[in-house]
């Protein structure tokens, strides 16, 4: 599962949102994509050590196996995730 931590006021979050929607649709058989509003869920942000938005955590068996901080192009994001799913 890929979880994006985001905020309404975050321009890079708005930029990456459609990319994550595309990835969720294209890889739905192998990857679940979710979003957590960091301003509304500060306890979760703190628990996972999120220091900026957007942050995307890739989870396997409940553990973070990869973290990406900042917006990426679709190609670059998929390249960073390729070894994990």
Topology:
Elements (H helix, E strand, L loop, with lengths): L1 E5 L4 H16 L6 E5 L4 H6 L7 E6 L2 E7 L4 H8 L4
Tell me about this structure.
The chain has 85 residues and is α+β, with helices and mostly antiparallel strands. The protein has 3 helices and 4 strands; from the N terminus they run βαβαββα. It has a 4-stranded mixed beta sheet with strand order 2-1-3-4, covered by helices on one side. Strand 1, helix 1 and strand 2 form a beta-alpha-beta unit. The radius of gyration is 12 Å and the shape is globular. It starts with a strand and ends with a helix. The mean pLDDT is 96.
Structural class by secondary-structure content:
alpha+beta
Give the spatial strand order of the biggest sheet.
2-1-3-4
Average of per-residue pLDDT values: 96
Radius of gyration: 12 Å
Shape: globular
Uncertain segments: none
Give the gist of this structure.
With 85 residues, the chain is an alpha+beta fold. The protein contains three helices and four strands, in the order E-H-E-H-E-E-H.
Notable characteristics:
alpha+beta; globular
């Amino acid at each position: 599962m890929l979880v994006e931590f985001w905020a309404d006021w975050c321009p890079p979050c708005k930029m990456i949102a459609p990319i994550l929607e595309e990835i969720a649709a294209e890889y739905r058989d192998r990857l679940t994509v979710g979003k957590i509003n960091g301003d509304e869920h500060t306890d979760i942000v703190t628990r996972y050590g999120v220091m900026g938005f957007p942050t995307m955590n890739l989870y396997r068996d409940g553990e973070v196996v990869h973290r990406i901080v900042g917006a990426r192009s679709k190609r670059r994001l998929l390249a960073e995730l390729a070894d994990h799913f």
